[in-house]
Amino acid sequence: MSTNPTQLSLLQEDIRRRYDTLSKRLKQVARYILDNSNSIAFDTVASIAQHADVPPSTLIRFANAFGFSGFNEMKQVFRQHLMEETVNYTERARLFRQTATEDNAVSPESPAEILNVFSMVNSQALQQLVMQTSPEQLDKAVSLLDGAENIYIIGLRRSFSVASYLTYALRHLERRAFLIDGLGGMFAEQLSMVNPKDVVIAISYSPYAREAVELVELGAKRGAQLIAITDSQVSPLAAFSDVCFVVREAQVDGFRSQVASLCLAQTLAVSLALTNAAT
Questions:
Q1: At what angle do helices 24-35 and 8-18 cross, to 10 degrees?
Q2: What mean pLDDT value characterizes the chain?
Q3: 3-state class of 239 per DSSP?
Q4: Angle at Cα 189 formed by Cα 188 and Cα 193, nearest 5°?
Q5: Considering only CA atoms, which of 209, 256, 204 is closest in space to residue 231?
Q6: Where is the SIS domain (predicted)?
Q7: CA pair distance 77, 37, nearest whole angstrom
Q8: How many Å apart are CA 94 and CA 100, to the nearest integer?
Q9: pTM score, two decimals?
Q10: Which of 9, 72, 86 is nearest to 40 (CA)?
């Protein structure tokens, strides 16, 4: 049994380190916990179990495996971290009330209601992006892009729009940026010239596009640097990445947004532009 972590970062690191040794059910819990730290803080055990697709008893076993007497004790680590990072007192009060009452969600119906809900959840996703993205990650990513001879950008299915924008932005910075779109099924051919002086940017979210994962592996074999934009710390992209940005997009009734990913892409492009202007 591991030592009971008193800080969220220590607990998350312990979970990541031991992830491959966990059983299938415990891996489901580990992944959900790593990817939904804010939700863990205030959701009920029943709700967390439902979203992780495990019985509530599995949550207790998971908590015990990491040195806690029960899952509610583990939740306190997430709750305390979130409360400490929430500066606004009104927001703190709202979060505190969630510990006692589970929200009764009502699906929006009118266009005005849908706009209101999406605006609210996207705002929360952007705040989470800022909290979970370190300056060191951003600095390293911009440095890699600045030193790259060629930049290959992979984004399939719903990631395509983010990849297209990033290609567009980098081209306007007069960078040799190439969108890997697999036209004619020529995914590997489009990446066949990649070398250690190049950077590959891969954007993929669960369920991960098989072609994207294969291209990332190809880039890694060729020695290229990899910047991953994905939705999980245990994403198949993360293992090959030099910089891995975990982005949790807003979701309403199964419809996932792309606001946070586009914000990150724009941040990288503008930061690179400012780096160029300073030299």
A1: 140
A2: 84
A3: helix
A4: 100
A5: 204
A6: 141-279
A7: 10
A8: 11
A9: 0.67
A10: 72
Amino acid at 275: T
Are 140 and 85 in contact by the 8 Å Cβ rule? The answer is: no
The answer to whether the bond into 111 is cis (omega within 30° of 0) is no
Beta strands 243-246 and 199-203 are unpaired
- Give the separation between CA 190 and CA 214, rounded to whole angstroms: 13
How many other C-beta atoms are found inside a 10 Å radius of the C-beta of residue 5?
Answer: 18
Please tell me the distance from the alpha carbon of residue 148 to that of residue 141, in angstroms, as a whole number: 11
For residues 264 and 129, the answer to whether their CB atoms sit within 8 Å is yes
Could you read off the pLDDT of 64-110 as tens digits, one per residue?
999 888 898 888 888 777 665 554 545 544 554 454 444 444 455 67
Query: Are 151 and 180 in contact, with CB atoms under 8 Å apart?
Result: no
What is the set of domains in the chain, with CATH numbers? 8-97 (1.10.10.10), 132-278 (3.40.50.10490)
* pLDDT tens profile 9-39: 788 888 988 999 999 999 999 999 888 877 7
Kindly report the three-state secondary structure assignment for every residue of 52-63: HCCCHHHHHHHH
C-alpha neighbours within 13 Å on the C-beta side of residue 9: 3
Task: Quote the CA–CA distance of 77 and 279 in Å, as a whole number.
Answer: 44
| Extended beta strands in the chain, E state | 151-155, 177-180, 199-203, 225-230, 243-246, 251-252, 255-256
